[in-house]
Structure to design on (183 residues):
């Protein structure tokens, strides 16, 4: 089914492109939104990404749908990072600002997935970007540094700061939940 749709999209069939877009746009929008935190910008990034996807689909060797989605997510992430870079969100950090990450676990039974999502969403743009790339999308610090044009040590600092802010926010949320449950 997917291979047939891909072949039609490669032949520039408009209806196939529309079906392909409808099939994957929501999933790719969520990836984009995770980085830019703005629906309008996320939508624009997805549209630009689909333009690139459609133009480079001939160069993609289809193995399975999982590989296709991973390839498209990579395009969306690169587009989102380009957008963030254009907004000048990153400031070079000296290596002396590096704090060792805490070994404390952030998980707690009182917290919901939505609590984690809201806490990540509330991070400053630079910290959220590095956190998403490292923790959620599996980039290494070296890849992050090359992609967003910062030092590798700065990537580590951004990640540590993001984790510390998340720990503070989630700890506060957890305390509030415990108070509510005890009343």
């Amino acid at each position: 089914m997917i291979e047939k749709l891909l072949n039609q999209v490669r032949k520039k069939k408009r209806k196939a492109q529309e079906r392909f877009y409808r099939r994957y746009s929501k999933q790719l929008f969520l990836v984009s939104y995770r980085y830019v935190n703005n629906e309008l910008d996320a939508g624009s990034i997805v549209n630009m990404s689909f333009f690139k996807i459609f133009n480079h689909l001939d160069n993609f060797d289809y193995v399975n749908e999982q590989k296709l989605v991973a390839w498209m997510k990579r395009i969306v992430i690169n587009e989102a990072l380009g957008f963030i870079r254009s907004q000048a969100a990153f400031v070079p950090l000296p290596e002396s600002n590096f704090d060792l990450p805490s070994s404390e676990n952030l998980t707690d039974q009182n917290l919901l997935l939505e609590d984690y999502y809201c806490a990540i969403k509330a991070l400053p743009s630079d910290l959220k970007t590095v956190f998403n790339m490292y923790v959620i999308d599996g980039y290494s610090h070296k890849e992050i540094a090359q992609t967003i044009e910062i030092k590798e040590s700065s990537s580590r600092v951004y990640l540590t700061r993001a984790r510390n802010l998340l720990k503070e926010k989630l700890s506060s949320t957890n305390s509030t939940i415990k108070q509510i449950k005890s009343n």
Q: What stands out?
A: Residues 132 and 138 are 8 Å apart (CA to CA). The chain has two domains: 2-86, 95-182. The chain is about 70% helix and 0% strand.
